[in-house]
């Protein structure tokens, strides 16, 4: 049974944890790449999960070659993906609202630590009616090193006024869990597109099927 001591703050990843957006993002990347004649694969898409835009560009350039025109791909992806965000095509993951309701009632601060750039992250959270439910955000364009470096979680803790070691980090990706652990946070993984790698299991990080288990543990 999951046991979570009461945290000073809870820090959430966004894509794949709060929002069921990873599938939409990867489908948008595939559509954009196909339009440019680039050989997109599912494996390439999965390697981008949880990564910052800069790191994604590095991975794509490595896959397609340094001469591949990244800017047209990024522009086409943004057109496709942002239209889907505006259309409300990204649903919430299960038990998000219930967990946020409980944390608010318990007066436990809440922050978001997302690799997504702030402008897009705010638009996605606002479209899902979640933006005002968080006390702070740390975004991919506000740190030098993306996940799995600890920077984004350390910044989120700072902005919510908590010590990293007293925070609970909730993540769906392997790179995100590595970032949270590197920041000395207690972490729980709720897998989405990716299952936990061997090192995540060696860390002893709890792995649960949904945020419901996190809610029950905090209530208990």
From TrEMBL:
<dbReference type="InterPro" id="IPR036412">
    <property type="entry name" value="HAD-like_sf"/>
</dbReference>
<dbReference type="InterPro" id="IPR023198">
    <property type="entry name" value="PGP-like_dom2"/>
</dbReference>
<dbReference type="InterPro" id="IPR006439">
    <property type="entry name" value="HAD-SF_hydro_IA"/>
</dbReference>
<dbReference type="InterPro" id="IPR023214">
    <property type="entry name" value="HAD_sf"/>
</dbReference>
<protein>
    <submittedName>
        <fullName>HAD family phosphatase</fullName>
    </submittedName>
</protein>
<dbReference type="Pfam" id="PF00702">
    <property type="entry name" value="Hydrolase"/>
</dbReference>
């Amino acid at each position: 049974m999951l046991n979570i001591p009461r945290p000073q703050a809870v820090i959430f990843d966004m894509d794949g944890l709060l929002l069921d957006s990873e599938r939409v993002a990867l489908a948008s990347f595939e559509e954009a790449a196909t339009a440019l004649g680039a050989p997109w694969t599912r494996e390439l898409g999965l390697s981008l999960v949880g990564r910052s835009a800069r790191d994604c560009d590095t991975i794509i350039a490595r896959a397609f070659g340094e001469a591949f025109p990244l800017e047209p791909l990024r522009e086409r992806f943004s057109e496709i993906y942002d239209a889907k965000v505006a259309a409300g095509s990204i649903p919430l993951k299960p038990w998000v609202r219930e967990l946020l309701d409980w944390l608010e009632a318990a007066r436990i601060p809440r922050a978001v630590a997302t690799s997504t750039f702030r402008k897009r992250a705010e638009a996605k959270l606002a479209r899902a009616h979640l933006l005002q439910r968080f006390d702070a955000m740390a975004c991919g364009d506000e740190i030098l090193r993306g996940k799995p470096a600890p920077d984004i979680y350390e910044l989120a803790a700072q902005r919510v006024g908590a010590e990293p070691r007293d925070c609970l980090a909730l993540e769906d990706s392997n790179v995100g869990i590595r970032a949270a652990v590197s920041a000395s946070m207690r972490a729980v993984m709720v897998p989405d597109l990716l299952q936990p790698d061997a090192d995540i299991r060696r860390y002893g990080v709890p792995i649960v099927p949904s945020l419901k288990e996190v809610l029950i543990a905090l209530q208990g």
